[in-house]
Amino acid sequence: MFDRFKRISEPAIVRLKMLVFVLALLPLAKLMVNGLMEHLGANPIERILRRTGFWTLTMLTLTMAVTPLRQLTGRVWIGRFRRMLGLFAFFYGCLHFATYLVLDQFFDWPGILKDITKRPYITVGFSAFVLMMPLAITSTDAMLRRLGGKRWRALHRLVYLITAAGVVHFWWLVKKDISEPLIFAALLALSLTVRAYYARQNRVNSAA
Ligand code: HEM
User: How many CB atoms lie within 10 A of CB 8?
Assistant: First the structure.
């Protein structure tokens, strides 16, 4: 019973990937439909900014959960979804930044520079976005081979720092209700704890 789905076939992985792909596009589809139907409320730009920001952080949290979930369940195939989720995080991050750049700031470069340097939550959000770039660029198999597994894995551990920066960015911008950033912070702490536990187990096992 517990061994069910321990291994799944290649066609099943492909079908699951297609499902994840469609599901990951649903928030964007919903935003577009609401936009076309003028259902984005009194401040549509703020709504788009907030939804794309929320989904960037959600996708980052899911990406970060892949390895701990794989370790906890022993289902190696779960790792096959990491790249897609990470690229969706970057995709929503680009939409979020583009919304800020084009719709919110209307390419007001001096204003943007002032925001990035003077408003701490923007500084942190912007740093997280910049850090996502090397991960997106090196997400291919060719780049993995070029960098070598060890260096590639070390670089991609940045996802934890990026997610932490995303949580801080969210925490600093909410005015009263911190429940949502708190949930993201708890999920980050949980993922890190599971990872640390397995890293320790591996050290103990290899020393024995
Ligand atoms: C990894 C990168 C980033 C993540 C994870 C992220 C995440 C978020 C989240 C979760 C929200 C709030 C969503 C909600 O209220 O439900 C948000 C809002 C916002 N973000 Fe980001 N963000 C990132 C990068 C950036 C960047 C690069 C900028 C601009 C340079 C930016 C500017 C903003 C602004 C202006 C808001 C709305 C603030 C408000 O309505 O008061 N973010 N972001």
Answer: 16
Residue 130 CA, closest ligand 1 atom number:
27
Indicate which atom in ligand 1 lies nearest the CA of residue 100: 29
Instruction: Give 131-148 pLDDT, tens digit per residue.
Output: 999 999 999 999 999 999
Which residues in 78-95 are b (16+ Cβ under 10 Å) and which e? bebbbbbbbbbbbbbbbb
Q: Is the pLDDT of residue 151 over 80?
A: yes
Q: Is the pLDDT of residue 92 over 90?
A: yes
Length of the chain: 208
Contact 9, 80 (CB under 8 A): no
Which of these, 172, 207, 166, lies nearest to 64 by C-alpha position? 166
Mutational pocket test of ligand 1: of 55, 60, 167, 170, the residue with most ligand atoms within 8 Å of the beta carbon: 170
Pick from 32, 16, 139, 37: nearest CA to 81: 16
Task: Tell me the CA–centroid distance for residue 104 and ligand 1, in Å.
Answer: 12
Q: Other C-beta atoms within 10 Å of 124: how many?
A: 21
State residue 49's pLDDT score.
98
- pLDDT tens-digit series, residues 23-67: 999 999 999 999 999 999 999 999 999 999 999 999 999 999 999
Residue 2 has pLDDT above 70, yes or no: no
